[in-house]
Write a structure and sequence with these properties.
Layout (H helix, E strand, L loop, with lengths): L1 H14 L7 H20 L3 H37 L6 E4 L6 E6 L3 E3 L2 E10 L6 E8 L5 E3 L2
Antiparallel strand pairs: 1-2, 2-4, 3-4, 4-5, 5-6
Helix pairs in contact: 1-2, 1-3, 2-3
C-alpha cells in the first residue's frame, strides 16, 4: 500500500513537468501531488483516498494554472499587436508575482503569413529566455508557432 502511494506521488510530481510544461500542466501536476498526499492522510483506505485526492487536486491545479497562463498570454498578445519593434514591454503576473519582458521584432511576410519574432524573458537572477516566432492566424490574432 505504501508503495502505491509513493508511486502515485512520484508520478504526480513528474507530471508537473517543470521546464517543458505550461502553467496549467504544472498546476495539474502539483495539485495531483498535494491532493494525493492529503487524500492518503485523511481517508481510511489510503489507496482510494490518494486516488480521489489526486483527481481533485489535478483538476483544481489545472484550473488555477490555466488562469495564470491566460494573463501572460494576453500580455504577449498585446505586445505583438501594439508593441513597437525592438521595444520591450514588461509586466508582472498578479497571481504569481513573476515579472516578464517581451521584445518583438518588426513584422515580416513569409509564405503568405505575417510573422514577428519575439524574445520573452522571465526577469530575475534565474529567469529563462525564450525566442519564439509568432504569426497571425486566420482570425487576425497572434499565435506562437510551436
Amino acid at each position: 500500500m505504501k508503495k502505491t502511494i509513493i508511486t502515485l506521488m512520484l508520478v504526480s510530481f513528474l507530471a508537473a513537468g517543470y521546464g517543458c510544461a505550461n502553467k496549467a500542466q504544472q498546476g495539474a501536476g502539483v495539485g495531483a501531488l498535494a491532493g494525493a498526499t492529503i487524500g492518503a492522510l485523511t481517508f481510511k483506505n489510503k489507496v482510494s483516498g490518494a486516488a480521489i485526492g489526486a483527481g481533485v487536486g489535478l483538476l483544481m491545479g489545472y484550473i488555477i494554472g490555466n488562469e495564470w497562463d491566460k494573463h501572460d498570454e494576453q500580455q504577449i498578445q498585446n505586445t505583438l499587436e501594439t508593441g513597437k519593434s525592438d521595444t520591450s514591454h514588461s509586466w508582472t503576473n498578479p497571481d504569481t508575482g513573476r515579472s516578464y519582458t517581451a521584445t518583438p521584432s518588426a513584422p515580416y511576410v513569409q509564405e503568405d503569413r505575417v510573422y514577428r519574432d519575439v524574445v520573452i524573458s522571465e526577469n530575475g537572477p534565474d529567469g529563462d529566455k525564450i525566442m519564439a516566432k509568432a504569426y497571425r492566424d486566420s482570425n487576425g490574432e497572434w499565435r506562437i508557432k510551436q
